Amino acid sequence: xxxxxxxxxxxIFAVFVGITxxxxxxxxxxxxxxxxxxxxxxxxHWFVNGIAFAGDYLSAASFLGICGMIAFYGYDGxxxxxxxxxxxxxxxxxxxxxxxxxxxxxxxxxxxxxFHSRGIKLSxxxxxxxxxIFYLIPQMVGAGALIKPLLGFSHATGVITVGAVVILxxxxxxxxxxxxxxxxxGSLLVVFSTVLVVMILNRGLIARPWKSDPMIHHFRTLNVPxxxxxxxxxxxxxxxxxxxxxxxxxxxxEVEELLPQNPAWQKTPYVRLHVKGDDVPTVWRFDxxxxxxxxxxxxxxxxxxxxxxxxxxxxxxxxxxxxxxxxAQGDLFPVGQIDFFFGEDxxxxxxxxxxxGPIDYLEKLSSSRVTLWGSDVIKDEDGSVTTVYYPKHTHxxxxxxxGNHPTFKGIRSDKLTDKLNFLSLMLALFGGTASLPHILIxxxxxxxxxxxxxxxxxxxxxxxxxxxxxLYIGLGAMTSGALDVTNSNMAAPLLxxxxxxxxxxIISAIAFTTVLGxxxxxxxxxxxxxxxxxxxxLLKMNMTDSQKIRIAKIASVGVGLIAIVLGILFEKMxxxxxxxxxxxxxxxxxxxxxxxxxxxxxxxxxxxxxxxTVGVIxxxxxxxxxxxxxxxxxxxxxxxxxxPFSQPGIVTIPLGFAVLxxxxxxxxxxxxxx
Amino acid sequence: MAHFxxxxxxxxxxxxxxxxxxxxxxxxxxFVVYCVAYGAFMLLNAFxxxxxxxxxxxxxxxxxxxxxxxxxxxxxxxxxxxxCRK
Lengths: 674, 86
Known about the structure:
The complex is a heterodimer of chains A (674) and B (86).
Chain A: H1 7-28, H2 34-39, H3 46-57, H4 60-73, H5 76-102, H6 107-111, H7 118-151, H8 155-203, E1 206-207, E2 221-223, E3 240-243, E4 251-253, E5 255-258, H9 263-266, E6 270-275, E7 282-288, E8 300-304, E9 306-310, E10 316-318, E11 321-322, E12 337-341, E13 351-352, H10 358-365, E14 368-379, E15 385-395, H11 396-399, H12 416-432, H13 437-440, H14 449-478, H15 491-499, H16 501-538, H17 545-569, H18 575-599, H19 605-624, H20 627-632, H21 649-673
Antiparallel strand pairs in A: 1-13, 2-3, 2-8, 3-4, 5-6, 6-7, 7-8, 9-10, 9-15, 10-11, 12-14, 14-15
Helix pairs in contact in A: 1-8, 1-16, 3-8, 3-14, 4-5, 4-7, 4-14, 4-18, 5-12, 5-14, 5-18, 7-8, 7-16, 7-17, 7-18, 7-19, 8-14, 8-16, 8-17, 12-18, 12-21, 14-15, 15-16, 16-17, 18-19, 18-21, 19-21
Chain B: H1 17-47, E1 55-56, E2 59-60, H2 61-83
Antiparallel strand pairs in B: 1-2
């Protein structure tokens, strides 16, 4: 979709960035020691730290990815919210206080507190770098997704802008500026998300059947003639009837031409028709009203779709025309609407519920029919690639149940591997939070264990509240008529736009600041691993505080540049999905050693080193060999994947525990024999 | 307002081993309670998804359970804070 640049959004964003950088420079003059740079001197107040937890944790994935997934698939995005929040229970009850007791600057400090082992330092530092970089990718992708409507620049420009600002924040004042950026961002995000949800509930739900709203594009539906047995029969029996809605007379539509069914299109449920009066041919999808109807001629429908075609020579056609706002050009139509409420009489006019309470909103939505949008990719013999976006009329009751998104298909599948994939992801979300290095290092910024505990509780309250809001933001976007079918990550800002320019500007600017806060935390964690763990401990470089800070700043620039490159390369992926990967790697690599170190006195340094190494390698390998990666990253046939399901956690987390226990037992026995 | 001085790391706190052990025991029990609730949610979705379609007050169990897991996390966190207030 083409977005218009919003001057207001640019201005608000500029103010946010200005305040952020001003704060960073102000605090930067005071951060002179390594303790100040990596852990804010341990003097952050527990409440500030708790909100900063929210600012650190509620990343682009939470705000953009989850809302986008809910807007396109319903409840499934909320499963991420539940899993992410549940992970904080592990952080509070298992990790928070022991970590504060054992560590100093980094996650590796805590693991190595008992052993002083270079092997532990190295493996923990590598794990920190791997998880941080994996987590950085979706943040940068989110930044790129936002910059298009916000500033009108390309995805790459957005990624580079965020990268540059974050590098500046981190290199000026380290953990101190990062904490206050996250505190401000966390507060703004929760407050304005609440405002957005209040407006959603106040607006209520609106059913817009067919032609009732001039702002909503009317996608046509044609009745398939009963006599048609093949696609070629479609236009033989004369004009097709265009269905305009309940109690509304049908119109006849004359099809001038049925485009040839070459092999690439023949095996799909699509036909290309040139309807009389249209400038160009359009793509239609065969659909049925009744689920048992599966063939042409059994009272089916043809539903108008939207298409984006990239030709062999790189030209982009939208709905058959060059993309643009001029005459003879085309653009994608915004989508997302309720068609009607079940049990209510409906005609051509819109039905408005008026303002609704939080539970009434869900109840009313579950008794409606909503048009969601799916997509298919068709590779033509002439080298062009067409992405078809098609409407899916869905019962509201199904939208509020899990299992619509491909990642969660296991819920409605009979295949054990699909169910294991679902369980594996939920396990990784549960175990991943307390294993994320940028979250763990925040425990070192408060003065004692009681503060660590209290700040976690503040974090749970603010994060939990926000996650409840995501459900309403996502469902509000789903029914707002403002969605871009090509970009689920834009659902929340576009929803805000449907309420007005000011809210759009504020929400977009906050979303952008969201990326700044999380990316800052990740880069601090990664630079700490390089300067403190690798250079300081592993290479035994004897450094003064200022030298250590200088190395950390150089590492920050390096990690920032890597994040920029990866953010550009992974443009098309849903950010929440990518974060799922980061959680899997974190939970597999870090959780077993953290938990066993705390609870099992028999843990040895060799056991920890082996567990982290096996966790990182096994989870990364599993992801790289999975069907999702084959399909979305390599662009190849997912059936060629070498692992039975895509999410590694259910295999690699227990593997990490098993390796730690096994190696610890073996090495302890050796010590006893010696 | 928090301090802005960034000197050396905060001195190591003096620990009461008995209190540390008591807190750890409470935390473990609360953790087990939440694990059971979360595990049941995962297993019900995977192996008995029809149960999630059951409605209460016009809203299905999937939504209520999700809200419950989020609200329950905060409730357990507050219980923990209360039990560890000394």
